[in-house]
Write a structure and sequence with these properties.
By secondary structure, the chain is an all-alpha fold. It has one domain (15-23, 30-162): Tetratricopeptide repeat domain (Serine Threonine Protein Phosphatase 5, Tetratricopeptide repeat, Alpha Horseshoe), CATH 1.25.40. The protein is 75% helix and 0% strand. The chain is built from 9 helices and no strands. The radius of gyration is 16 Å and the shape is elongated.
């Protein structure tokens, strides 16, 4: 029996359209009009499962608001994960967590990207960081369990290779 890819398992616990909608009011700060409009367009595209369209709209936001684009980076990382572009998701998630280290969802995206790329130790670290900010996140709890299982499997393979 084949095991689902890490993102397929995580996506079951990640309500990306709810995440996108929640992002619109992130931190309670008022968003500039153009930013709000782009995030609304991206959210609509995500709800329709049009990850490429959402990714493109979010790319515009990243280009126009490079210092405050952590929200767009978070959502674009989710779109990249959905499309199997794990290396790009990793880049976006890393920058998102650098720009706003208190944004728990950014750590969830970082963990997912690392996990999908086979970086189990880095994934576990990112999930722990995110759980420190949002201990109730089912997505991050599952992600940490998957990362720990991958680490255990890596350890088992190393032991088998030594014998």
């Amino acid at each position: 029996m084949a095991v689902a890819a890490p993102w397929e398992q995580l996506a079951r616990h990640a309500d990306l359209t709810a995440a996108a909608a929640a992002c619109a009011g992130a931190g309670g700060a008022a968003l500039p009009t153009a930013t709000g409009e782009r995030l609304a367009r991206a959210t609509r595209a995500m709800r329709l499962g049009d990850w490429l369209a959402a990714e493109r709209v979010l790319g515009q936001e990243v280009k126009e608001q490079p210092e405050s684009c952590w929200l767009a980076l978070d959502l674009r990382a989710a779109c990249c994960l959905q499309r199997g572009r794990h290396d790009l998701a990793l880049d976006d998630a890393m920058l998102c967590t650098k720009l706003n280290p208190s944004w728990a969802r950014g750590w969830a995206r970082l963990g997912a990207a690392h996990l999908c790329l086979g970086h189990a130790r880095a994934a576990a670290s990112a999930y722990r960081q995110g759980l420190g900010l949002d201990g109730g996140s089912r997505e991050m709890q599952v992600g940490l369990q998957l990362a720990q299982a991958a680490l255990a499997a890596q350890g088992d393979r190393r032991k088998a290779m030594r014998h």
